[in-house]
Amino acid sequence: TSLCLDAKTQDISDAERLSKMSYMQFADRVNCDSIMSNLEQRICLNLEFQKSDSIVEVKFDSLLKVVESDSLKTELIDYQKVWAKNRHNQSFILSKGFRGHMLGIVYLSTMINISRRRIEEIEYLIRN
């Protein structure tokens, strides 16, 4: 039997949690091409994180489609879940000591950077 890919293969709890932050209620009023405040920067970083996290999810699902071995798919899914926790933990550690919007800015910037590196890793795995 083939591994079912319909179930979520990636932990998206960070993306869901961050998209529901109270400050995101102002997202439709912000022009991310012309950021004027720390709040606007935080909103734009949150939106950018949502985008990068969804790309990770799409790329990861693409990777699973080219892997034939169910056992390897299971290993990749397990690793992806560990990776998501590690991304969260690294971002938390690097943002520690900051407060308010600066904490959010550092946290979100780290989440984005780690996500971008993961996209590159997954693309490399797909190609090879």
Explain what you see.
There is one protein chain. 70% of the residues lie in helices and 0% in strands. It has helices at 13-19, 38-66, 70-95, 100-127. α2 packs parallel to α4 (100-127) and α3 runs antiparallel to α4. By secondary structure, the chain is mostly helical. The protein is elongated, with a radius of gyration of 16 Å. The longest helix is centred in the middle third of the chain and has 29 residues, at 38-66.
Oligomer: single chain
**What would the average pLDDT be, to the nearest integer?**
90
Taking the alpha carbons of the first and last residues, their distance comes to: 25 Å
Shape: elongated
- What's the total number of strands? 0
Note the main sheet: none
Task: Quickly give the structural class.
Answer: mainly alpha
Could you state the order of secondary-structure elements as H and E?
Answer: HHHH
Strand content: under 5%
Please count the helical segments: 4
User: Would you identify the regions where 5 or more consecutive residues have pLDDT less than 50?
Assistant: 1-7
The helical percent reads over 70%
Radius of gyration: 16 Å
Q: Briefly, what is this?
A:
With 128 residues, this protein is an all-alpha fold. The protein has helices at residues 13-19, 38-66, 70-95, 100-127.
What are its keywords?
128 residues; mainly alpha; 4 helices; elongated; disordered N terminus
Task: Produce the secondary structure layout.
Layout: H1 13-19, H2 38-66, H3 70-95, H4 100-127
